[in-house]
């Protein structure tokens, strides 16, 4: 089956643009030695519509799709699979690249483009590793994140963190402690989890009605600020 340019709808254009943030996120995670780009199937001669770190291949917005990209798209049209899933290739200047490609879906699941990730392996490995490690010269370079297997554990960890921070704040009075802890959890979106109110009430030794009262106050304050 031969491939052909896709006739885009407005929804297809919006769908493809939504993937742009994913490209930025991947490039930010892996670092400057990684090129991330999005091809659009609307115009194969000018298929690159998003690119980060394009200096690795010399491409820019408006560059065409590659021959391998066309073969992979053709394979996807025939089988529903992208092959190869991960591969090695060389850039025009001879740099070794480890790459992977994913076909992007638009309206009704039709293929509208490709997300391509190219890791440049030609740089000294310690240099690459340096971009993947935290900068220990920066204070508090580690973010607190707990990888939980249940919603209850997420609530527990967030509650313990809120209690620790509020109890360490000398400006919070004993009378205002429970409200401050609840506000901390509210600001961090923890009350979007269903069992939060029950767990917080039990831990703080107050009623769920008291928690609901705090939440109404917080939501009212937020509405006033927005208005």
Description:
There is one protein chain. The chain has 227 residues and is an alpha+beta fold. Helices cover 43% and strands 16% of the residues. The chain has eight helices and five strands. The protein has a five-stranded antiparallel sheet, sandwiched between helices. β1 and β2 form a beta hairpin. The N and C termini lie far apart (56 Å).
What is the topological layout?
Layout: H1 10-18, H2 20-30, E1 34-40, E2 48-52, H3 67-79, E3 86-90, E4 96-105, E5 111-120, H4 125-132, H5 151-167, H6 177-187, H7 196-204, H8 208-226
Antiparallel strand pairs: 1-2, 1-5, 3-4, 4-5
Helix pairs in contact: 5-6, 6-8, 7-8
Helicity, in percent?
40-55%
CATH fold description of the largest domain:
Beta-Lactamase
Helical region count?
A: 8
Strand order of the largest sheet: 2-1-5-4-3
Sheet with the most strands, sense and barrel status: 5 strands, antiparallel
Number of strands: 5
The fourth-level CATH homologous superfamily of the largest domain is: PAS domain
Cα distance spanning the termini: 56 Å
Quick structural gist:
It holds the Pfam family PAS_6. The protein is an alpha+beta fold and 227 residues long.
Which terms summarize this structure?
Beta-Lactamase; DauR-like_HTH; Transcriptional regulator; 8 helices; YheO; 43% helix; 16% strand; 227 residues; alpha+beta; five-stranded antiparallel β-sheet; DauR-like; elongated; single chain
